[in-house]
Structures are given as C-alpha cells and as structure tokens.
Automatic annotation (TrEMBL):
Residues in RagB/SusD domain copies: 359-508
Family: Belongs to the SusD family.
Subcellular location(s) per record: Cell outer membrane
Signal peptide range: 1-29
Gene3D superfamilies the UniProt entry points to: 1.25.40.390
Keyword set includes Membrane: yes
CC terms in the record's Gene Ontology section: cell outer membrane
Pfam families xrefs: SusD-like_3, SusD_RagB
UniProt-listed InterPro entries: SusD-like_N, SusD_RagB_dom, TPR-like_helical_dom_sf
Coiled coil: none
Keywords: Cell outer membrane, Membrane, Signal
Protein name: Starch-binding associating with outer membrane
Residues of the SusD-like N-terminal domain: 31-234
Length: 509
C-alpha cells in the first residue's frame, strides 16, 4: 500500500517531508504524490531524474517561507531595539514571543526557539541531499547541475548565517543523513568553522549562479550570493574582502522617480523592481501560501480596521507583534519619506476617534483570500548593498566626502533628505554612526537590525538603554529580570531537546 502526501508552494511542487534530517521529493503536478512507504524508499533509489532533482532543489527553499513568516522577524527585529509587542492579556498562549523581547526565552521553549532551529536544519538537510545525489542524475545537463548546486549552497549558507549569528557555534552538517545511526551530530563547530563553511558555499554559489533572475521568481542569483558573502565577511570584521565583493554588484539600481518610490519596493504590483536582489515569495490567491504580515503586525485591538478584511472582524493573540518602539519612531528625521511608508502611529476607530497604537504598515497592501496576502518579503535589496559598501569603505579608512558619502547620499536622496557631508560628519567614528543610523531607518522591519547591532562594540549598552525605556513604558507588566543584558545575552540558548539528544554544550545565560 502506498502512502500519499501533499504540500503545495508557489513554485508548483509536491513534496514528502521527513524530519530535519531527510527528505524525499517527487515531480511537479496537481495530483497527490504517491511514494512507497519510507521503509521501502531511500534517497538513493528516489533521486533518478532531472524532474525529481528540480523538486528537491525547490524543496530546499520551503523553510524560508515559514522562517520569514515568523522566526526571522522575531529574532531579527523584536529581539533588537527596533520593535516590541502589544501586550494581550486575554490570551497568554504565545508568551514565549514576549520572552524573546524580554531576553528571557528559556532553552525549553519549543515555539519559537526549537522551531527556529528545526526549520533551519530542515533547509540545510535538503540542500545536503541535493549536493549528495545530483551528480548521479544522468538526464540533467551539466550547466543545470552547476546552477542547482549554486542554489542549494546559497540556501545552506543563508540558513547557517542566521543560526550562527543567533546561537554561536552549532553543529555543522554538510552531508545528508542516510540512516538513524548517523543522525546525531558530532557536537558544536566553532563560529569560525561555520563562517568558513558559509564563505566557501557562497564563493562557489557566486560562480555557479546566473546573473539574471530565474524564470521562477524567488530563486537565487549570483547577486544574492555576493550580497550574503559580503554580510558574512562583515560579520567577521573582514571589511576589505566585503568591499571587493560589494563593488561587483552592479546589475541593480535604486527604485526611484517619485515620492512613492520607497513604498513601491514592497508593493506586490512592483515585485520585479530593479532593487530586489532576493525576496521570499508568497501567493495570496492560494490558501496557505500567502504571507500574513498584514495580520500579524496589526494592533490586536483594531478589529478589521487595519486589515480591511470583513471575514476577520476581530484580531487576537496572533496579532499585535513586531510593533515599532518609541525610539524607532523617533529615529526618523523630519521629512523622511520612509517613515510614513513604513509605520503608522495608530488607527481610526469606528467612531472616527484616533487610537494611538503604533504598528508596522510596510507590508500592508490588502489581501487576496481572507488571511492571505501576496506581499513578498525583501530579504536582500540594493539599498542594503550601498550602505554595506559605505560602512565597509569607512572601516577601511575615513575619506572626507569620498565614495562612502556618495553611497549614503544616494539612499538619503531617495528618501527626500539632504546630503551628509564632511562638515557635519568629520571622522570615521561619526560616519560609522551616520551609516548605522541610515541602515536603521532604510531597512527598518526587514530583519537586519539585530545583525547590524552585532557589529557594534556597544551593543550591550544600546540594548540596555532600550530595555530601560521599555520598562519605563510598560511598567508593571515587565517581569523580573527582563532586559538585563550582558555579553552572554547576545546568544540564544541552544534548544534543550538538542542539548539532550546530541549532548551539546549549552550557551552561558
């Protein structure tokens, strides 16, 4: 008797998911996937055709959609000083998300800590499976093999980049697991070893991937691999290497031309715009394939006044997340067009009374099906590249009104702001602060803030200042020990399940 499984995604595929260590995939069709039971089917016996390998590659992208829907913004934005949450006393079922913001998340938290780990290693395992079996596919052209290898190496590096930044040293899995006896990890690799693997993967991906986009949007390109490679170098303080890579990224441009240009970057009607280097794709017209940022980030007391969805007249614990902090709101200069395009200070109730409750509106472009939108998430874009290059050039040496100034001013001018110059920004330290500030407002709510903070020597000071402000605003609802941040707080605890099963050393807390 054969087992049947079905999971759909925008790229039109069906896959059989098996845990974080193995996957088995089949061809693209609208029929249910029919496979022999797992006991009778192995990766080696399954991956035989080009069509099967295509679906295996697509399968390695799948965890990105789920991670971007929740964990990436939770750990990239809400863990930083950019965003916080709206306390919802009626339902405390998602309290672990609060604890991420408070820096009190326990190792035992399944959701979101363990799910972050598991989803990431699922993507890594699927990439490993492709690399282990692709050379045995006889009906696959060599050029296509090369591109597939580039895609999954990019994805493996992408997953590892987020893991190592959040957890530090982690298990380094580079081959697929073929039997249960091989399932246990060999312990935690060092951060240096993880970054070396990331850099190796991305260097190969740059050479293997096409410059122009894939026919199916959302697939990796050499530009995406270069951008991630530069991020890896910068995370290690290797700024000269980052400069060399970033200066090669020339096939993109800022979306500009009118006062709405910044807003259009995120508009699904302009999803192919010249600024997007890599984005996570969603399809709101298919149930379960759409993004939900519109609903998650809406105030939980706004009913459908923010979402405009008549079928969802009330919101509850699933909303009220990732709200801009007071400090974030005040970070925008007067006249910055990005502020209105990125956040709202509140909403009008049924009686026309303004309710003050700031929320992220950057991804609010209506819905397709109730609860589903087609808004993609811009993971990498050209403004990020310009600001990374400006930062890296400055770290190599301050140059008054040099190239780094021009790069920052391109981004500022699009936002309706005047140039900065060496009269007001007079040295390397001041420019470092200027580009750090520019990254904050340009890339707000795009999951870069925590990783930018990690490059700062004063991250603990910044986060403790943020914590004091939050305690002042929130008062009695803040639990004891919240926002007490030191160097140990910069790493998340390893999920307790992984510590137990794989005998991993826990991060100090």
């Amino acid at each position: 008797m054969k087992a049947k499984y079905m999971i759909t995604l925008k790229f039109c595929f069906k896959l059989l998911g098996i845990s974080t260590l193995m996957l088995t995939l089949s061809s693209c069709s609208d029929d249910f996937l029919e496979l022999d039971p797992e006991s009778n089917t192995t990766d080696a016996s399954f991956f035989k055709t080009a069509a099967q390998m295509e679906q295996a590659v697509i399968g390695a992208y799948v965890p990105l959609r789920d991670l971007t829907t929740l964990e990436y913004w939770l750990f990239g934005e809400m863990r930083s000083d950019n965003t916080t949450f709206q306390y919802y006393n009626a339902d405390r079922g998602l309290e672990n998300r609060d604890l991420v913001d408070y820096f009190l998340i326990p190792a035992s938290a399944v959701d979101p800590l363990e799910t972050f780990w598991q989803k990431s290693y699922t993507g890594i395992a699927r990439a490993n499976t492709v690399l282990d079996y692709i050379d045995g596919i006889s009906d696959l052209e060599e050029q296509q093999k090369k591109e597939y290898k580039g895609e999954v190496r990019f994805l493996r590096a992408f997953y590892y980049y987020h893991l190592v930044q959040q957890f530090g040293g982690i298990p380094l899995e580079l081959v697929s697991t073929t039997n249960p006896s091989d399932a246990h990890s060999e312990g935690r690799a060092s951060k240096e070893e993880i970054f070396n693997s990331i850099i190796e993967d991305l260097t190969i991906a740059v050479e293997n991937l096409p410059t122009v986009g894939h026919a199916n949007r959302g697939r990796a390109t050499s530009g995406a691999a270069k951008t991630m490679l530069a991020k890896a170098y910068m995370a290690q303080g290797s700024y000269s290497e980052a400069v060399n890579v970033l200066q090669e990224i020339t096939e993109y441009s800022l979306l500009s031309g009118d006062s709405d240009s910044y807003r259009k970057i995120f508009d699904p009607n302009y999803s192919d715009n010249s600024e997007i280097i890599f984005s996570v794709q969603y399809l709101g017209s298919e149930e379960g394939l759409g993004s939900t940022f519109l609903y998650q980030f809406a105030p939980n007391n706004s009913g459908n006044l923010v979402t405009g969805d008549p079928q969802m007249p009330t919101l509850a614990a699933g909303s009220g997340w990732n709200h801009p902090t007071r400090d974030m709101i005040q970070a925008y200069e007067e006249g910055d067009l990005r502020k209105e395009a990125s956040l709202s200070l509140g909403f009008m109730d049924e009686n026309g009374v303004f309710v003050e409750q700031p929320y992220v509106s950057k991804y609010n472009f209506g819905f397709d099906l109730s609860g589903n939108t087609s808004v993609n998430f811009p993971t990498l874009r050209y403004a990020d590249v310009l600001l990374m290059l400006a930062e890296s050039l400055n770290e190599e040496g301050f140059s008054a009104d040099g190239e780094a100034f021009d790069l920052v001013n391109q981004v500022r001018n699009r936002a309706g702001l005047e140039d900065i110059n060496s009269t007001e920004v007079t040295n390397q330290d001041e420019f470092r602060e200027a580009v750090f500030q520019e990254r904050r407002v340009e890339l707000a709510f795009e999951n870069h803030r925590w990783y930018d903070l990690l490059r700062r020597d004063n991250i603990v000071e910044i986060m403790n200042t943020h914590g004091e402000e939050e305690k002042e605003i929130r008062g009695d609802i803040v639990p004891s020990g919240a926002y007490e941040i030191d160097d140990n707080s910069l790493l998340l605890p390893i999920p307790q399940r992984e510590v137990t099963l794989n005998n991993l050393e826990q991060n100090p807390q």
